[in-house]
Amino acid sequence: MKYYIADTHFFCTRNKRNTTLPIYRYRGFPDVDQMNAFMIRQWNAKVSQVDEVFIIGDFSDGTAAQTMQVLSQLSGKKYLVAGEYDMFLMDPHFNPAMFGWIRNYAEIDDESRVVNLFHYPSVCYHDAHGGGYMLYGHIHDDLVTQGIIERAEEDIKNFRGTKFYKNHIINCFCAYSNFVPMTLDEWIVNNQKRRQQMQLQMQKDYPHE
User: Fold this and answer.
1) Residues 6 or more apart from 122 whose CB is under 8 A from it?
2) N or C, which end of the chain has less CB nearby within 10 Å?
């Protein structure tokens, strides 16, 4: 089974942007150790040793030693699409063999579906007009990428015969799945529900627009 997840940020003690709360507190944990432990439990409750997990960036803010200690506890074969906070990759003491591969961008097949993996959201990717998928992380607020997607959809309408599958661009931020890696089909359903909720909230906040 193939699973996907992004932005776990193990060991992160930085404040969430534009707040005075460290990320673990913003996520509802009293300290970073309890956040790490919960994410490990959630992962292992879903993933078996024979499964594959594709991590779409910002896996760990920790040192090489800390990150390897977490990796040794997580089930499955793990692959990393690097994010900007994965600085442990620069440490010569880190063992890259703990991942099946480490790339900045990846394209894989998931039950005959083209899946593009990139830490940063993009509306231009391989097979975008043929029904392929773009799974990303980096953005912790769907409203940010919603505007990008809507502008791209409007632009692409000007190209005759070109389709744009906006629901195939999916944010796999770990908090959206309660820190559980999910299959592509599970992320598709998760994405649809989030977008429906977002539309309802926007209609409530801006009823006359």
Assistant:
1) 116, 134, 136, 169
2) C
Tell me, what DSSP letter sits at residue 128?
A: T
Alpha-carbon gap, residue 144 to 169, rounded angstroms: 13
Helices (H), 108-168: 142-156
Is residue 186 within a helix (H) or strand (E), and if so which, with residue range? helix 184-205
Kindly give the pairing relationship between strand 77-81 and strand 2-5: unpaired
Distances 132 to 45, 81, 160, 167 between C-alpha atoms, Å: 29, 18, 19, 10
Q: Report the greatest alpha carbon distance in the chain.
A: 57
Topology of the domain comprising 2-205? Purple Acid Phosphatase; chain A, domain 2 (3.60.21)
CB-side neighbour CA atoms (13 Å) of 15: 5
Q: What is the mean pLDDT of residues 179-185?
A: 98
Helices (H) and strands (E) in the chain, counts: 5, 8
